[in-house]
Amino acid sequence: MATMPVFAQRVTHMREQRRLTQQELAAKAGVSYQTIWRIENGKHKEPGIYIARSIARALGVSLDYLVDLYGETKDSEQLAAAAA
Asked: What is the pTM of this model?
């Protein structure tokens, strides 16, 4: 099975941690439910900056964190293990 992109892992993890449904996150971020679903299911691997920023704001995290700007791969591996 292919590895889920870090952005998708982190969006899913933070959404679940915040106890939001995909629909609730979509509404908070001002994007469609399909956008959130596609991101979390690896179908929309590189969302545009405005969508990514809106999702980060809705989740209350930095965009840096969601996109793994500083290459925190150890954290990414821990999220993947937690999701399995």
From this structure: 0.78
